[in-house]
Predict the structure.
Amino acid sequence: MGYTFMLSYCAACKRAFTFNPLRVPSIILKDKEEEGNQPICKPCALRWMKYHPEVKFTIPSDAYEPVDENEIPWDYITNRKTH
């Protein structure tokens, strides 16, 4: 058994960060290069929550932690766009 995490750039601030791909908060982008849900880092998620208190959501405690590799479905890995 092993653990893994994803490494990507935050869709909001463009900084690199690691996350659990099944639990991380994301935003929907509709531009020429990237489309669909894109992950955001914890500082950006907290900032968004501060400025949008009317929208209630929580950041899962394991959103930015490694995940057991057996929890990630194989089709999730093979269908994911790489940047």
In short: The chain has a mean pLDDT of 84. The two ends are 27 Å apart (CA to CA). Helices lie at 42-51, 74-79. The first strand starts at residue 3 and ends at 4.
